[in-house]
Amino acid sequence: TGTIGFIGLIAPHFARILLKARPSQLYLTSSLIGALLLLMADLAILYIPLFSHIYIGTLTALIGAPCLIWMLLTQQRKIYD
Q1: Checking phi first, is residue 20 left (phi over 0); if not, alpha (psi -120 to 50) or beta?
Q2: Within 13 Å and on the Cβ side, how many CA atoms surround 79?
Q3: 45/52 Cα distance (integer angstroms)
Q4: Does residue 56 contact residue 42 with C-beta atoms inside 8 Å?
Q5: Where are the alpha helices (H) located in 1-81, listed in sequence order?
Q6: Are 11 and 69 in contact (CB under 8 A)?
Q7: I want to staple 30 with a disulfide (CB 3.0 to 4.6 A). Which of 8, 15, 18, 69 is the partner?
Q8: Is the distance from CB of 39 to CB of 56 less than 8 angstroms?
Q9: Crossing angle of helices 5-19/27-47, nearest 10°?
């Protein structure tokens, strides 16, 4: 999936949380959210000194992994409740 693979995993889930629509209606929203997440990560690497020595793929993984785990846990609770 490349170095920024978490963007492709997280953006559709964020779009579904925001819109609560069918998957066929989420294409544009998912792409815009993914572009926004990548832009924010790139700007953080450029302008925040704390992140200046890491790669963009590392930053997106640090943001994406906890979000993905949180979404999986909340979906699991909905299934068993």
Answers
A1: left
A2: 6
A3: 5
A4: yes
A5: 5-19, 27-47, 56-80
A6: no
A7: 15
A8: no
A9: 120
